[in-house]
Amino acid sequence: MLKQLLLNGLISGSIYALVALGFAIIYRTVRFFHFAHAIVFTSGPYFTFLFKNVFLIPIYLSIPLAIISSTFLGCLLDISIYRPLRQKKASSMILLLASLGIYIVLQNLLSMVFGDDTKSICISKILEGINIFGARITSIQIAIICITIILLLSIVIWMKKTKMGKLVRTVSNDAELADISGIDSDKVILSTFAIGSSLASVAGILVAFDVAMTPTMGFDALMMGVIAVIIGGIGSISGIALGALLLGLAQNLGVWYINSQWQDAIAFAIMLIFLLFRPQGFFGKPLKKAEI
């Protein structure tokens, strides 16, 4: 039982890590709560469902098309809504409310088009999982863990080795100084929306393959991702990964002692503890007064 719960925690933590990293990359550059990240997460599996079941495109093509479509959606939100608001010097509160409005509108649009019922994009029969040291794991769950590791390492390399990654770090540290230095902040921010949205869509598709999908699935995933960011620290990829793993393990091990309906309560309790005693997270740095 313990081995199975630990494995389930690793799987949950992998999904949280992808959502959290995508959210953190965007948040570091725009500095507001991107609620619509939840609908980008949800759009991945629904685009896959649309291409596979409606347009009858093979699944191996539907998945990359869905990721591209979700990435385009995330970029479109920045270009059409957030960028004009930034140019008008809108406050973080205005941007947050705009993002919340986007989420509500698009989530209801998904419900109107596809219905509120649970759907699946699974392409194979449900088989008994592989036995690993007494715990069961399916092939899609193995894929979740492996894909998460690959994407996390890829983001680390992108942030540290590529020109755009270095520009993202520059804008994240001081957007005004970056503008004075001649850096095109809008272009950099757009690139973070592209990367963050693609990570969210991949996470959504993996969840849909493993379990199922509903139009509201993104909100819970976003909340867990944000808690993982708070636990790990907004500026640390390794911290975010560790925070996501801790969150996934805590939720699943908590089921051993209390009812599963308390999983969300466990997550928010951990968040409150970190906010009270270590608000910068595991590897985050305390903000200077000038940065607040």
The residue fraction in helices comes out at over 70%
User: Looking at the structure, what is the overall shape?
Assistant: globular
Strand content bin = under 5%
Structural class: mainly alpha
Oligomer: single chain
Q: Radius of gyration, Cα only, in angstroms?
A: 19 Å
Mean pLDDT: 90
Overview of this protein structure:
The chain is mainly alpha-helical. Residues 287-292 have low confidence and may be disordered. A two-stranded antiparallel sheet has the order 1-2. The protein has helices spanning 2-30, 37-54, 59-87, 92-114, 139-161, 163-173, 175-180, 185-210, 217-232, 237-257, 263-277, and strands at 130-132, 135-137. Helices cover 74% and strands 2% of the residues. 43% of the residues are buried. It has one domain.
Features:
single chain; 292 residues; two-stranded antiparallel sheet; 11 helices; 2% strand
List the helices and strands and how they pair.
Blueprint: H1 2-30, H2 37-54, H3 59-87, H4 92-114, E1 130-132, E2 135-137, H5 139-161, H6 163-173, H7 175-180, H8 185-210, H9 217-232, H10 237-257, H11 263-277
Antiparallel strand pairs: 1-2
Helix pairs in contact: 1-5, 1-8, 1-9, 1-10, 2-3, 2-4, 2-8, 2-9, 3-4, 3-8, 5-6, 5-8, 6-8, 9-10, 9-11, 10-11
